[in-house]
Write a structure and sequence with these properties.
Keywords: Membrane, Transmembrane, Transmembrane helix. This protein has a domain of 66 residues. By secondary structure, it is mainly alpha-helical. Helix 1 packs antiparallel against helix 3. Helix content is 72%, strand content 0%.
Length: 101
């Protein structure tokens, strides 16, 4: 996998996580109760939305991105280990940094 594909995939997974988390939070009975879907808007509390929504948004963005990044790191790390010769002198003599493979 190329870095651009991994980065693009991580961004797509993160965006889908945000949409899914906000939709799931908005569809829950508890949120509907706070937003006023009871009889004559009794129990309407927008403070709950203002305090919970940023955390739902961040969790929906961060958790899928971290899982995606961890999976990509594990897959790419396993693929690169057999290719390297294991000696730091070999990468220095070829003029290529081990960080810019």
């Amino acid at each position: 996998m190329k870095r651009d594909a991994v980065t693009g995939g991580g961004c797509l997974v993160s965006a889908a996580g945000v949409v899914g988390a906000v939709w799931l939070w908005g569809a829950s009975d508890r949120t509907q109760r706070h937003l006023g879907n009871e009889f004559e808007n009794n129990g309407q509390d927008f403070g709950a939305a203002l305090t919970e929504l940023p955390f739902v948004f961040l969790a929906g963005a961060v958790v899928p991105a971290v899982v995606w990044g961890l999976g990509a790191w594990l897959l790419l790390g396993r693929r690169r280990r057999p290719e390297s010769s294991g000696s730091p002198e070999s990468s220095e003599s070829s003029g290529v940094s081990e960080f810019h493979a």
